[in-house]
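Usage

Read records sequentially. Each one opens with the input sequence:
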Amino acid sequence: MEYRLRATKLFTNDKTKGSLLDRHALLWDSGKSWAVSTVMTRQNHIQLTDFETTAFIPLWDMCNHEQGKISTDFNKEKNRGESYAKRDFKPGEQVFIFYGPRPNEDLFVHNGFVYPNNDYDYLTLTMGVSSSDPLRGLKMSLLTKLGLNYVTQYRLYKKGKIIMPELLAFIRIFNMNKDELEKWSQSGLPSDLVSSEESSAKEVGRDIDARAYKYLLTRCNILISAYKKFEVKDAESLNRKNIKLLKECEVQILEDAIEYINTKLEQFKPIA
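and closes with the structure output:
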C-alpha cells in the first residue's frame, strides 16, 4: 500500500466564505484528491482520557481487509489501542484485519476495493408508495405502525435471510387490497407482517404472500436485465476492474434472490 500525500492548503479562516473549506485552495488533480481520500478514510475513533477523538494509527491502518471478526479495540485501562491477530500468520506473510460488516458498495466507495467473498454484502433496493396510488393512505398508515413510513431503502442480503424483514413487510403491504389493508390496520402492532416464520406467514395468508413474492420477483428480473445490459468500458484500469467486479457481485445477489423467491412461490402453488 502506497501513501503519497502532498501538502496543500485545505482550510481558511476567512469567515466571509461561509465554510472552513476553501474550495479555491484545492486544485483537484489525481494526486491531491487521492491525498484527501487517504486522510478521510483512515481516521479512527479513539478514546482519550475523558473524550473521544479521531486520529491516525500508523502501521495498523496499512493493514488490508480479510473476512473475519473485528479484533481491534481501545484499552481504556492501558490507554492504548489493541489489535489481535484474527488467525495464525506465518513469518513474512501479510497481516490482515477485518474492516467490519460492510457491503461491497461501501468498501468500494470508502476503501477503493471490492471483496468477492464478502459474507456481509447486500444490494439496496429503492421502493415506495406512489402518490397516485388510490390506496396510498391505508398503505402508509400501516407502514407507519411498523415505523417504515420514511423508509425507502431496503436490502437483499447475500447470506442468511436474503429478504430483510422490513422489505418483506413492505412488499406484503404494497400488494394488499383495500379489505386486507383495513383488516391489518385494525390490529395493534402488525408484527406478523415483518416475520418470515411459518406461524406469521400463516397469519398473513398465502394469497398476500404469493402476490408479494411475485412483485419482488418482477422487480429483481427488471434489475438484473438492466445490470446485464450495462457494460463497463475500459475495464483494464484498477478502478474499472472494481466496478466490473462490484457489478458481478450484485448480479449474483439478484440471481440468488430470484432462486430463493421462485422456491417460495413453489410453496404457494395449489396442491393437485
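Summary fields computed downstream for this record:
- Confidence is low (pLDDT under 50) at residues 1-27.
- The chain has two domains: 38-100, 122-267.
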